[in-house]
Known about the structure:
By secondary structure, the protein is mainly α. Helices cover 66% and strands 0% of the residues. It folds into two domains: 33-77, Homeodomain-like (Arc Repressor Mutant, subunit A), CATH 1.10.10.60; 91-251, Tetracycline Repressor, domain 2 (Orthogonal Bundle). The protein has helices spanning 36-51, 58-65, 69-75, 79-103, 109-126, 129-139, 146-170, 180-196, 198-210, 214-230, 237-251. Helix 4 runs antiparallel to helix 5 (109-126), helix 5 runs parallel beside helix 8 and helix 7 (146-170) crosses helix 8 (180-196). The radius of gyration is 30 Å and the shape is globular.
Amino acid sequence: xxxxxxxxxxxxxxxxxxxxxxxxxxxxxxxxxxxxxxxxxxxxxxxxxxxxxxxxxxxxxxxxxxxxxxxxxxxxxxxxxxxxxxxxxxxxxxxxxxxxxxxxxxxxxxxxxxxxxxxxxxxxxxxxxxxxxxxxxxxxxxxxxxxxxxxxxxxxxxxxxxxxxxxxxxxxxxxxxxxxxxxxxxxxxxxxxxxxxxxxxxxxxxxxxxxxxxxxxxxxxxxxxxxxxxxxxxxxxxxxxxxxxxxxxxxxxxxxxxxxx
Length: 261
């Protein structure tokens, strides 16, 4: 009886590893849907505000954003293209928010000025990089953004606020013995300086308070507690904004007649 030959068992064939498909052309994708381009813009703004534009190489921006220099160059071919993008996508929207009350004035010129002051300060609080960038690149001699900011910002704010102050004086809403131009400068200073100089005045305030007599300190602490209770849960800048608006309300009032002695 002949036995049938059993087929030989074949060893399993080796499976070739799957090849990764080539990357499709277009913007690189980050894990978790992170907006790498937005992160690069944020990092550039932070460093420009800290060091200045001329002192910030592109490599430092890539390092701050946690990406490779090659990826930064993918989005922005040069420093000038990066700065132009920041002006278009970050500075221009900031300016639009601040000047909106001036472009849509209320019936009352004084109320329009007050609304502008509050809107601008809240805009600065939401974008703390802006006042520091202005100090370095607009107010400082040789600042690389001075011409652009004058065209975008000052060219709108200066004439609009000047006309509003003059109109408010004519209709008796604010005192008429103030110089309209200097009043406008004072208003902008009230709005911008606390944000631009925050690190300095906070340190000075702490050192000054430490040397005050205890009764004075007690009164200051009581006032601070009162303000915090009025703004429970509000960001720290809210107290400053309300304080500035109170100054605005008081400094533009008509001077009280002096009593004869």
